[in-house]
Amino acid sequence: GENVEQHPSTLSVQEGDSAVIKCTYSDSASNYFPWYKQELGKRPQLIIDIRSNVGEKKDQRIAVTLNKTAKHFSLHITETQPEDSAVYFCAASMAGGGNKLTFGTGTQLKVEL
Amino acid sequence: EAQVTQNPRYLITVTGKKLTVTCSQNMNHEYMSWYRQDPGLGLRQIYYSMNVEVTDKGDVPEGYKVSRKEKRNFPLILESPSPNQTSLYFCASSLGLAGPYEQYFGPGTRLTVT
Fold it and tell me: How far apart are alpha carbons A21 and A13 in whole angstroms?
C-alpha cells in the first residue's frame, strides 16, 4: 500500500519567515495530495490540495509543489504569522482507491514572535 | 450548516465494556471513514465506507467494527475495548465515488480505556 513520509517533525520559524514542509510518497499511482492544518484541540481542515496533472498551486501565502518523477510534494508558507502555528499533515490518495487517504506523521510548526 | 458530528466527544471506559461512537454527516456524502490519531503516528485509517452497506478495512481495523445502514450515519463499535485503543478518533466524510475529494472531519472523540 501507499506510504507517506513527512519531514521535519517540528519546525520553528520567526514571524515573517518562510516555512517549508516536505513529503514523499511511495505509490506512483497516487494522484491527489492534500494538506491539512490541525490547530490545538481542533479537527484537521484542508488548506490546499494538488492533483497530479498540476505541478504547482498557490493560494495567497500558501503554495504546494509536486514532483511526480521524484514522488515528493512540499508545502510552502510565506510571511508566516503566529496563527500559522499548528500541526500540518500531508496525505496522498491512490487513483482508483476511492477517497482513501494515507497521511504523513505531521509537522508541528511554531511561529515565534 | 454542513457538518460532520461525533458523539461523545470524550469517553472514559474500562477494558472490555462495549462502546459505540456515533458519526453523522448532513452533506449527502457517499464516502465516510474513521481514523485514529496517535502522537508521532499521524492519522491512520480504521475503516471506510464507499456507500450504504459497503464497508472495508483500512490500515488498523483490528478491534473495531463499523456499519453503514444509512447514508448519513457511520458508527464505530469497540466490542471489547483495550488500553491500546486509547486514542483520539476522527470521523470524516467526502463527496462521491469518483474522487478523491476533500474530506471533512468531525470534531473528534477522545477515548480513554483503563
Answer: 12
- Which residues on B lie below 8 Å from A44 (Cβ)? 43, 90, 105
Pairing of strands A107-112, A10-14: parallel
Query: Which residues of chain B are within 8 Å of residue A49 when distances are taken between CB atoms?
Result: 102
pLDDT in tens, chain A (113 residues): 889 999 999 999 999 999 999 999 999 989 999 999 999 999 999 999 998 888 999 999 999 999 999 999 999 999 999 999 999 999 998 766 567 889 999 999 999 99
Main-chain phi, psi angles of A3, to 5 degrees: -135, 130
Q: What is the DSSP string of A21-49?
A: EEEEES-TTEEEEEEEEE-TTS--EEEEE
